[in-house]
Amino acid sequence: MVSIRKRYLKNKPFCTVTFSLSTAGAGSAAVYLVGEFNGWDTLAMPMKKLKNGSFTASLLLERNREYQFRYLLDGGRWENDGEADKYLRNPYGSDNSVIVI
After folding, report:
1. pLDDT surpassing 80 at residue 26
2. DSSP string for residues in the chain
3. How many domains does the chain have?
4. Is the pTM of this model over 0.85?
5. What backbone torsions phi and psi does residue 37 show, to the nearest 5 degrees?
6. Where in the sequence is the domain holding 6, given as residue range(s)?
């Protein structure tokens, strides 16, 4: 299971977004959150592995924007988020998840 939680900050143009990955990441040693917000750097944002085996990461994103992203599991398998706001085709023949803030 994947999930996204948005928490808008009062009087500020930002939103704290928490990305969680459980069943899709089960058995993975490492999961990275990769997207426009980190220049698609596959090593920039490792997700924290929790005791139950799920992964989580939070970041502050600017409001009134859309960000494409994906999860990279163990350096070789890409996953989308089932709770993304929408999906856009990427140049590699698959889709990217999109979050709208």
Report:
1. no
2. -EEEEEEEPTTSSEEEEEEEE-GGGTT-S-EEEEEGGGTT-TTS-BPEEPTTS-EEEEEEEESS-EEEEEEEETTTEEE--TT-SEEEE-TTSSEEEEEE-
3. 1
4. yes
5. -70, -15
6. 2-100
The CATH number that applies at residue 58 is: 2.60.40.10
In angstroms, the CA 96 to CA 35 distance is: 9
Structure tokens that stand for 80 in this block:
């989308």
What value does the mean pLDDT of the chain take?
93
- Reported as a single tens digit per residue, the pLDDT across 37-80 is 999 999 999 999 999 889 999 999 999 999 999 999 999 999 99
Taking a C-beta distance cutoff of 8 angstroms, is the pair 66, 101 a contact?
A: yes
What is the C-alpha separation between 2 and 71, in angstroms, rounded? 10
Name every residue whose Cβ is closer than 8 Å to that of residue 93 and which is 6 or more positions away in sequence. none
